[in-house]
Amino acid sequence: MQIRAAVMEKNDGTFTKRDIHLDDVELEEPRAGEVRVRITSCGVCGTDRGCIHGLEPYPTPGVLGHEGAGIVEEIGPDVTLVKPGDRVMIGFPYCGVCRSCRAGEPRYCERGLELSFSGYRLDGSGGMSRKGEKLAGRFFQQSSWATHTIALERQLAKVPEGLELDFAGPYGCSISTGAGTILNVLRPGPGSSIAIFGVGNVGLAAVMAARLTAATRIIAIDRVPERLALARSLGATDTLEHGPDTVAQLKEMTREHLDFSVEATNGSNLVSEAITALGILGTCAMVGGAKMTASVKMNHPDVLLHGKKVVGVMGGGGQTPHFLVSLMELQRDGRFPLERLIKFYNFADVNQAIDDSDAGRTIKPVLRMTA
User: Fold this and answer.
1) 54, CA 20 to 30 Å: which among 47, 196, 252, 305?
2) Which overall architecture, per CATH, does domain 177-312 show?
3) Contact 171, 327 (CB under 8 A)
4) pTM for the complete prediction?
């Protein structure tokens, strides 16, 4: 069938500037285990922007978008969990058969990078084409900057009744990443303290999730005063404008007893600070994006003698439809106000949404596929 999609002809490079525009595209029929979804909305995520700016790999010409939400229109053979008419959001892809998937850790699928960034199915086939030209149309196995897409049945979660469908897409990546880091991985106990470095959409999701726990000190750190004010209104007990004294300030505030830190910046790579600020037996979660060649420095005696832990967290860990549905139910019930982060854009304004996200003018842009 013919659809409309935001095709990236080229990304930013040393001698090139991105070229993304709406175009007519042919979409294949769903195969076994696949579902065709009419996309009503899709978030603009830091990972999309990383591919656009050449920080993360994705072939061109291709279609980005991996926080899609919409209505199931057609199901392929062997699909049993959803049916036409179901409201769904599209989560992370995973193979379902590797060691990690079988152990219940699909976020760490051994073929996750290939599924997410190759632009094609695992057998090398694609789902989109344009006038006979093959497109990389399987970004995170969904490429949902489009009016319709094909996704894997196992990466779908049904959107609860009572929640506006167009709020659901961001749970597919950025929001579940921040919330899952707190609720699935760190799990702060009564009286604990947590510092969140970077309060963009991932960091603010972590703030909102931390508010749902028994943590008594939630410290938000950022360079933008407006974001710190929003973080406080969403549950942060303290805020710090980032600077050269941030680590010393955290140590003083917590009396060197900081239990958890989350590095959620998009490319700033403040992991070293997040580790140094921890108290004895503290845990640092590495969540934010960075260049593929980035490295982290830490002081060996500090980590060893104080029993500090450093853990990488991919997409919030523990991702299952049940967890995604639980987050959506919390929003529906007024306990996880994601709607306060979102600004909607018409599909035709995809480039404006990217620019506004890059500039920090919008925390969570969401495209509505009305064009």
Assistant:
1) 196
2) 3-Layer(aba) Sandwich (3.40)
3) yes
4) 0.95
